[in-house]
Each structure stands twice: as structure tokens, then as C-alpha cells.
Amino acid sequence: MKKKLSAINCQLLATVILLPFALATASGQTLAPIRKPPFNEPLEKYNMPPAAPRKIETSPRMISQFGVFTSFQANVDAGGNNILGDCANEPSIAVNPTDGNKMMIAWRQFNSINSDFRQSGWGYTTDAGIHWTFPGVLQDNIFRSDPVTKSDEAGNFFYLSLQSTQAQSFFCDDVWRSTNGGQTFTEQSPDEAGHGGDKEWFTIDTTGGTGHGFLYQFWTGFFACDFGEFNRSTDSGATWQSPINIPNNPDTGAMDVDTNGNLFLAGGGSPFWCVRSSNAQDPNVTPTFDQVTNVNLGGNLIQGGINGIGLCGQTFIAVDRSGTGTNNNIYVLASVEPFSANNGTDVMFARSTDGGLTFSAPHRINDDPVNPNKWHIFGTLSVAPNGRIDAVWLDSRNAANNIDTQLFYSWSTDGGVTWAPNIAVSNSFNIQSGFPQNQKIGDYITIVSDNTGGNVAYAATYNVNPNAVNGHEQDVYYVRVFPSGGGTPTPTPTASPTPTPTATATATATPSVTPTPTSTPTATPTATPTPRPTPTPRTAPTPRTRPTPLPRP
User: Roughly how many angstroms between the first and final C-alpha of the chain, as a whole number?
Assistant: First the structure.
């Protein structure tokens, strides 16, 4: 019965998606209908087959300079060029803590803007983000989404990936690991063996305690693989415990671990919840949740608005492990539609200095004048090893049409009590350009901080493509932000935005795995990466019988 209801919900969602996208407002904005949680329909759906093979054309990769900040395109072909006619969004970044030159970004890869079918793309760099190699996807022609990446303390990269089939209205996941800087990934378990569900997220315990190396994940229980909302792996993702439920069903959020090995997760939409498990680090017990705290962020998470059918953000949580006076502070941040408004979003922040027992009143981080027609979406944060908090988001404050956005940045050096004046760190772009048959630019962006700055992965539409929506395409970019960037810089022209197509032999949009250097000089010499071998085909896993999930409040 529940699967039938889920199918009906999927049909209703598809009907919503097929409605005219644009809603004109008095301010001239083009907005999608706004929906608030709980979201009782899946945010992902397998509804189109893989894109057909096509002739690949390229243009120079985009390097977008804005003052002292430089954004480098990550989803490039083997020659370092932009691939025309594909799409990449929803990026998640991981950084090797032993060597900041080595990073990887995972993203949703659409081989063609004419197909909604998406796969698990990724790229890696060995020269601090100046040049990127895109080896391909985890599995060719396998529907995957919601990429999440983390690094352990030794620099091994982990990739959590959502998977579904066309026959399913629910989602399962699995974890992949790279021990060579993101050049290749190996699946840790059989397909979909992580259980999981829609909007899954995970973290790794790197604290050195009894839970060292444990992987924790949670997801939206309403569209779970089989049941539950949370589970744990004590062997790097090879096996996973049977899922359990979380008090108050928080979802669409993130997780982190404090220096004592306590696990914290934050999610919801309004109300927001911060939930603690102090015994998840004990391999001999089934985890329980011993602390549940309501967090006021002054508004609701929303779907729609400026981002089509996508979320305007999700809930992020970060724990200070600096060993300073702010050690074990817990920070929660989200882009929310204020309770007092029915349009627009603000980046809101709350802090706990008592282990999550209580949280501060919400603090508005975007410092432009209050204006419900402005959008500040995809807010996310990271805490540096020295305790500095970095926050980034996409911001329409400078756009006359209230649609074009820039990446903005702010930071705090006093545990989130005060925040630096906001600075723009990217050129402006139309967030509604480049839609494939999937009307959004993802649901989130991500940042990983170190003592001098933050490493950001975001999606933008700088590259020109006359065949794409609004004449530009969605691609994934890396930019390093840092407090010494100063005030808002003057924008400069983007580099080589006009495509110069060059036909090649007929191929799929997945680039060749043989990397070659780009024409742009590197900052430091880089080794020739090892190509990713063709993955061994796997037989499809036996479908699970999905029991009826617990009712949502």
C-alpha cells in the first residue's frame, strides 16, 4: 500500500514539475511555486533513460576572475576543455588534510542537457585546484544522485552516492573509497548495501577515540531504501548496521563529531533539530539518541522560488575541534525563508556553547538591507582547525532582476558572535540558465576550511552555450576564499566565454580517461594521473521489500 501511495506522490510531483515553471512577480522575478517541509514527495526521480551517444564539442575551460578570487572549472574533458551540452551541479568537495594541494569534487553529471538522467561524476586536483581531471562516473549508465564526499585524517576520499532504478519510488545508497587522491574509486560494498534514502548525508569520525574511522549517515525516512533514517559502518562502508529511527525525524541536513566522539546531526526545515548520540562511537551497542534540541533559525527551508524544483538550501552543522576557547562549540546554519516573509531567503546561523543543550537566537549572516525579493541560497559553513568559521552562499543582492547571483563569503573569528562584512567572491551568473531536463542548479554547495581560507565547490553558468536554457550551461567550479580578500572587488571579464566547437568522433558525453595537461600553466608541477579503469559490470542487486515507514509528523 505504501509503495502505491509513493507512486501516486511521484505522479503528483511530476505533474507539478510539468506545470509552467515561471511565475512572474511584481518585482519582475521568475520564480517557481514555493513549497515548505515536510516534503512528502521524493526530491529525486528516475524518469528518463540515459542520454543517447552524441558528437562531443568543446570550448576552452572557464577561468572566472573576480578581483583576487579565481574560479576554476572542474568538469573538464581530458584535454582540460569545457564539454558543451552536458551539465554538472550539486558539488561536494573533500580536501586531503595532509596535503591541501589534493582535493576532489563529486557532482551530479548529466551527459546531455536533453536528458534528466544523471550519474555520479567527480574530478580531482593535485595542484590546489588550478587544474582538474574528470575521470568519468562511478558506474556508466547507472542512475545516481545526491553526491556527498569526505576525507579521513589520512587523506583517503569517501564518496556516498544515492542510487535508484526506474521501477523504484525510493532510494538506496553505497560508499566508494579512493586511496590515491581521487584518481580511482572502489566500491566498499555491493550496490545499495548502505540502505540509505533520499537526501542522505554522512560524516567520518576522525577524532582518534573509540569511534575512530566510523562512518555515520542519515536520510529522509519517508523515501528510504527499506526502513529507518540512520545507520553506522565500523569498517569503512563495507557493511552497515540495520537502520534505526531518529527522534522527530530530522532530514535534509548534515552531521559532525565533537572531540569527545559525540555525534551530532542537524536537520528539519522548521522546526530544526540538533540531535546527539553519545554512544554511536561504541561498536558494541546499537546507537541511541540521548539529546534532542530545537534550534530556531528564524524561518523555513523551502523548495522552489529562484531554484525551480530544487531546494533553496539544506541544514548544515559544524563542530569546532580547534582546542581553543571555542572548542566543541556547535554551529547550525541554513538558508531559510523568514517567518515574516513569503518570498526570498536569508542565511541564518545559531550557536551552542554547551554541547547542544541550548542554542543562541538566530543571527542573519547576509548583511544587505532586508528585502524579501532578494535570495541568499545554498548557505553552508565549515570550521577551520584554528576555530575560524567560514560561510558561503549564492546571493542575488546586486541583481536588478533578483535572479542573477554571485558567490558571497563571510567569516567569524569569535565563535559566531560577530561576522565580517560580506564580500562577493565571484562574477555574476544567471542561476536559471543551463537547466537540463531537471529544473534546478542542485540543492547545495560545500566548503572545507583550513587555517588560512576555505575551499569551495559551487555550480555556476559562466560558459556560453547557445543551445542551453538562457544561452549558458551549468558547470562545477572551485574557488579558494580567504579573509585577506578584503572588500568587494571590481568584477573583471570572464576568460574565453564564447564556445569554439570542434567536432570529434561520435561518443558519449563521459570524457576520456586519458588525461592530458591543459594549456594554462600550473602553479606547481603535477604528476601524470593514473587513468581510471573501466569498472567491472555488476549484476543488479535483489530488490528489497520496503516496509511501511513510520508516519511523519
Answer: 19
All three cell numbers of 82, joined, read 569545457
According to DSSP, the β-strands at 303-305 and 254-257 are unpaired
Alpha carbon distance 9, 98 (integer Å): 46
* Burial status of residue 400 (CB atoms within 10 A of its CB: 0-12, 13-18, 19 or more): exposed
pLDDT tens for each residue of the chain, 553 residues long: 333 333 333 333 333 333 334 454 444 468 999 998 877 666 677 778 888 888 999 999 999 999 999 999 999 999 999 999 999 999 999 999 999 999 999 999 999 999 999 999 999 999 999 999 999 999 999 999 999 999 999 999 999 999 988 777 678 999 999 999 999 999 999 999 999 999 999 999 999 999 999 999 999 988 899 999 999 999 999 999 999 999 999 999 999 999 999 999 999 988 999 999 999 999 999 999 999 999 999 999 999 999 999 999 999 999 999 999 999 999 999 999 999 998 999 999 999 999 999 999 999 999 999 999 999 999 999 999 999 999 999 999 999 999 999 999 999 999 999 999 999 999 999 999 999 999 999 999 999 999 999 999 999 999 999 999 999 999 999 999 999 875 433 343 333 333 333 333 333 333 333 333 333 333 333 333 333 333 333 333 344 444 444 444 3
- Grid cell 563571510 is found at 410
Question: Which three-class secondary structure string do you get for 341-377?
Answer: CCCCCEEEEEEECCCCCCCCCCEECCCCCCCCCCCEE
Task: Write the secondary structure of 30-56 as one string of H (helix), E (strand) and C (coil).
Answer: EEEEEECCCCCCCCCCCCCCCCCCEEC
Beta strands of 339-466 (E only): which ranges? 346-352, 363-364, 376-383, 389-395, 404-412, 423-424, 429-430, 446-449, 454-460
Q: Which of 327, 319, 233, 237 is nearest to 281 (CA)?
A: 233
- pTM for the complete prediction? 0.86
* Residue from 452, 455, 451 nearest 407 by CA: 455
What H or E segment, with its residue span, contains residue 16?
helix 2-18
Answer whether 25's CB lies under 8 Å from 402's CB: no
**Residue 256 near residue 266, CB atoms below 8 Å:** no
Q: Are 516 and 79 contacting, i.e. CB atoms less than 8 angstroms apart?
A: yes
Strand arrangement of the beta sheet that strand 263-268 belongs to: 254-257, 263-268, 272-277, 291-295
Strands annotated E in 138-226: 144-151, 157-163, 172-178, 186-187, 201-204, 215-218
Closest CA to 89 of 73, 78, 103: 73
Listed residue (216, 200, 356, 203) closest to 273, CA to CA:
356
The closest alpha carbon to 42, from 223, 163, 218, 168, belongs to 223
